[in-house]
Design brief:
Oligomer: single chain
Number of strands: 19
Number of domains: 2
Largest sheet: 6 strands, mixed
CATH superfamily of the largest domain: DNA ligase/mRNA capping enzyme
Radius of gyration: 23 Å
Order of helices and strands: EEEEHEHEEHEEHEEEEEHEEEEE
Strand content: 25-35%
CATH class of the largest domain: Alpha Beta
Shape: globular
Structural class: alpha+beta
């Protein structure tokens, strides 16, 4: 009797839904020096996961903690023909950080995409954003920051494999193996498996920016999804300016109207009328007047009159003491503009 033909066997290809969930400790050691068959195309750019601001750190076995670095978020793309250093918004700043680019080339000849923060450290080893800006020649400067270093904390792609579907703990495992040989301007951002309240207290005492909490079982998810959370030693955050209240003095403003993104949508967060000096309000009013629109970008419930509405393209750092029951800032104070690359 003739046997029926056998079904052809698939060769090494699996559907994404069939892939096993990878956990730290089970991933084979990555060999960064040995090229592998290119199974996944290398992304030209990866949207970063952004930390959601919370008042207290989450706790439990699913969370790990790191120090929050105060610098520029960046991705290192080690490509077959060289290195690119991209900002969070996709701008190529390779020329600004030559020492980081050199260290990225020296790490391996194979491909990878690494996530981290570019910082400049002060004499006590703390990241200092003002030192970083100064080393670049100011916010509008274009100097090379030879003293900048890259604090690495995630890995998206390695040697022909897209790692974004893996759990964070698995990506972190591969990153740690890779950076055992790292020298120079690329360093591993240390992970702490401790009580986050104790870590936060130490960060506060050392006058650090704060701490970051990360879900160990989360895949890479761009945007503010709650899988990464930031707890800042000073209650401050970045808000988008959506308008202002004119001052009785020509050329000045009395307050700015601010909003913040929640679940992908901008939400009005109130007005800010303190923290400005005369130079601030003159320059800010001039910039906002160039962004004037007839209607507000979002619903704004307020009894204030004669408001001027603007496109929400300027970002301001605001310090505050908390939130009211109707989700408005309590005792907010203006602390300067931030560029999109600084967020």
């Amino acid at each position: 009797m003739t046997k029926p033909p056998r079904k052809p066997r698939s060769i090494g290809l699996k559907k994404e839904s069939d892939e096993p969930r990878l956990k730290s400790g089970r991933v084979r050691r990555a060999d960064f020096d040995k090229p592998e068959l290119l199974l996944d195309p290398m992304p030209a750019r990866v949207e970063p996961c952004l930390a959601e601001l919370t008042a207290k750190p989450p706790k439990g076995d699913r969370w790990v903690y790191e120090i929050k670095w105060d610098g520029y978020r960046a991705h290192i793309h080690r490509e077959p023909n060289g290195v690119r250093i991209l900002t969070k918004n996709g701008h190529d700043w390779t020329h600004k950080f030559p020492a980081v680019a050199e260290a990225a080339l020296a790490l391996t000849n194979t491909t990878y995409i690494m996530d981290g923060e570019i910082v400049v450290l002060d004499d006590q080893g703390r990241s200092d954003f003002n030192l970083l800006v100064s080393s670049l020649g100011g916010r509008a400067g274009n100097r090379a920051a030879a003293n900048a270093i890259f604090m690495a904390f995630d890995l998206f792609y390695q040697n022909g494999r897209d790692l974004r579907r893996m759990e964070y703990s698995s990506r972190r495992h591969i990153l740690e193996q890779a950076l055992k040989r790292s020298t120079g301007a690329i360093k591993l951002s240390e992970e702490f498996a401790v009580d986050p309240d104790i870590l936060f207290r130490h960060a506060y005492e050392l006058e650090l920016e704060g701490i970051i909490a990360k879900r160990t079982d989360a895949r890479h998810m761009p945007g503010r999804t709650g899988t990464w959370r930031k707890i800042k030693c000073k209650q401050s955050d970045t808000f988008q300016i959506v308008g202002y209240e004119p001052s009785g003095t020509p050329g000045l403003l009395a307050s700015i109207l601010v909003a913040q993104e929640h679940s992908g949508k901008l939400r009005y967060a109130g007005s800010v009328g303190t923290g400005f000096n005369v130079r601030d309000v003159r320059e800010l009013k001039s910039q906002l007047d160039a962004l004037r629109v007839d209607k507000p970008a979002i619903p704004i419930k307020t009894s204030r009159k004669n408001l001027v509405y603007t496109k929400p393209t300027l970002y301001a750092e605001i310090q505050y003491r908390g939130w009211t029951v109707d989700k408005k800032l309590r005792h907010p104070s203006y602390n300067g503009l931030r560029s999109p690359e600084e967020l």
